[in-house]
UniProtKB/TrEMBL annotation:
The keyword Plastid does not apply. Pfam families: FGGY_C (PF02782), FGGY_N (PF00370). This is Xylulokinase. Its EC number is 2.7.1.17. One of its GO terms (molecular function) is D-xylulokinase activity. Residues 25-249 form the Carbohydrate kinase FGGY N-terminal domain. InterPro entries: ATPase_NBD, FGGY_C, FGGY_Carb_Kinase, FGGY_N. It comes from Populibacterium corticicola. It comes from the Bacteria. Belongs to the FGGY kinase family. Keywords: Carbohydrate metabolism, Kinase, Transferase, Xylose metabolism. CDD domains: ASKHA_NBD_FGGY_BaXK-like (cd07809). Residues 286-483 form the Carbohydrate kinase FGGY C-terminal domain.
Length: 542
């Protein structure tokens, strides 16, 4: 597989020559808790990595990261990557065939004409934009989530914040870092689609919707046109500028890094996740299950109507993507597995957490297709899709339901996918077809269990494998290599490039939905939807 730690046929000497000659690409992604750098070879193989841990800060009732923390984290992760390269291959890299920057999407970075930050960076985590998001969603007839950049900007206008009159440029975190490295005020279309709605035909901001916003803003505030404040939109494979001398010194204060290196369009973490799971073609998608759970489906055409359950973004190539984002994922499953592990210990049985988790999951395969009439809600937190501001984990059964380990285990897994399935029902109602969904996350480690039940929940084939193991830093490094390939004359589309060059030998297993499981989950989901009244009551009285 091309994503092995190193290509089995390659020698250390060959890799050393690739590094010395710059026949490699570098990707750096700024996540919410870690900044990771990843170096890949010409076949996509990860060669080295470096990371820096960081945390957001709650300042003046808003979540933020300082630009000083951004700079320090970028330099530390890069220095650790260089050290890893030197320790492994005996050479220090000074140049690359391409560089890519990715970061958590959305948020608000506002600068004046001199490039000064006007207010601390407001991250995707902030929820102070409710009034703006609601007004813009109605105005545009387009779902504008709280975290989108335009919601932050318009909320600042509604709140009469003094800095608004000084704004000359708005961008995201990836756009800011790219700007520091290249001097270019550009953004990949996927990340741009989290700033303002994108027209998938134009692969650019929707001009019709921009004019509506400009007209509304003019009634409240004298401002340049919004498009003049936003970064220029680029699609995957386009030249997004080159590393400047000042940019090289900013990333590598040792002075070893050479300028002039090609950079690909900066992207958001959603886009790099799509690349890392090879889910960039229409009728494909990916599901990520962790503390939260979300699905992204690449659409063949625009949706007919606006749905609050669905966020619309794009792939790095500009194809429209519907995103179902649920606040609650696998935490409740983990809690129950812990309880069963404690019970095993009380019986004098020694078992690792993986063994307990595996036994619990495998039991689910023997459960009734509809879960035996049991219900489980994994709501540790509120869930916007179902209209709940708070959550209360619940397990509910009726006198005529069948309570046993197999049904209980199946119900808990069903519960982890319940809200996601409600959002996917909305997509199905729009006639959206899915040929394959790639799933990743800890719940899929027990072979064939969560994968099979997810296939039932979304009524589509589900694939799992190790193709997403390197994450977004690897994904943006791949996008940098794609930009290099295009610069060297390649005509391949991004899906063609991924299928033919990166994932051709990927180790992936696919499970098709079982008809009995699909019918059983549909029964479960009907009861789950009706039982939301119980969950809502629990939040009110407990």
């Amino acid at each position: 597989m091309t994503q092995a730690v190193t290509n089995e046929s390659a020698t250390i000497e060959a890799i050393r020559k690739d590094i010395e000659s710059g026949n490699t690409t570098l990707g750096i992604e700024l996540g919410s808790t870690r900044i990771k750098a990843c170096l890949i070879g010409p076949d996509g193989s990860p060669l080295a990595s470096g990371s820096h841990d960081w945390e957001n800060v709650y300042q003046d009732k808003l979540w933020t990261y300082s630009l000083e923390a951004v700079e320090a984290g970028m330099q530390d992760s890069y220095a650790k990557l260089v050290a890893d390269v030197e320790a492994t291959y005996g050479v220090r890299p000074t140049t690359y065939g391409g560089i890519g920057i990715s970061a958590m999407m959305h948020g608000y970075l506002a600068f004046d004409a001199s490039g000064n930050l006007l207010t601390p960076f407001r991250t995707w985590r902030n929820t102070n934009t409710g009034a703006a998001a609601e007004e813009l969603s109605e105005l545009l007839d387009y779902n504008i989530p709280l975290r989108w950049s335009v919601a932050h900007w318009y909320q600042a206008i509604l709140d009469n914040e003094p800095h608004v009159s000084q704004i000359a440029f708005l961008t995201t975190l990836a756009g800011y870092v790219h700007w520091k490295l290249t001097g270019e005020k550009v953004l990949g279309v996927g990340d741009a689609s989290g700033m303002f709605p994108v027209d998938p035909e134009a692969r650019d901001y929707d001009a019709r919707l921009l004019s509506r916003v400009d007209e509304r803003v003019a009634t409240r505030h004298e401002s340049p046109k919004l498009v003049d404040l936003l970064p220029k939109v680029l699609v995957a494979g386009e030249d997004a500028g080159s590393l400047t001398e000042s940019g090289a010194a900013w990333l590598d204060p040792t002075g070893a890094l050479q300028s002039g290196i090609l950079l690909c369009p900066p992207e958001g973490d959603a886009g790099t996740g799509m690349v890392a799971t090879n889910a960039v073609a229409p009728r494909t998608g990916n599901v990520s299950a962790g503390t939260s759970i979300f699905a992204m489906v690449v659409l063949e055409h625009a949706l007919k109507t606006r749905h609050h359950e669905l966020d619309l973004v794009t792939t790095p190539s500009g194809d429209l993507v519907a995103m179902v984002h649920c606040n609650n994922g696998a935490s409740e499953l983990n809690a129950w597995a812990t309880v069963f592990g404690q019970f095993a210990t009380a019986l004098g049985v020694s078992a690792t957490s993986d063994e307990v988790f595996g036994a619990f999951f495998r039991a689910a395969l023997d459960g009734e297709a509809n879960g035996g009439g049991l219900l489980a809600y994994n709501y540790l937190a509120g869930e916007p899709i179902t209209g709940l501001d708070q959550g209360r984990p619940l397990f509910v059964r009726t006198p005529d339901s069948t309570l046993n380990l197999a049904n209980f285990a199946r119900t808990q897994i069903y519960g982890a996918f319940g809200t996601l399935a409600l959002g996917m029902r909305v997509l199905a109602g729009e006639g959206v077809a899915i040929d394959d969904m790639f799933a990743h996350g800890g719940v899929f480690r027990t072979a064939g269990v969560a994968q099979r039940l997810l296939a039932a929940a979304i009524n589509a084939p589900v694939s799992v494998g190790d193709t997403a193991s390197e994450g977004g830093a690897w994904g943006i490094a791949v996008l940098a290599d794609y930009a290099r390939a295009r610069a060297n004359g390649s005509k391949a589309s991004l899906p063609e490039y991924l299928n033919e060059r990166v994932f051709a030998d990927a180790n992936v297993s696919t499970v098709a939905p079982d008809e009995q499981d699909v019918a059983g989950f549909a029964q479960y989901l009907d009861q789950y939807h009706a039982g939301l009244a119980v969950e809502r009551a629990a939040t009110e009285v407990l």
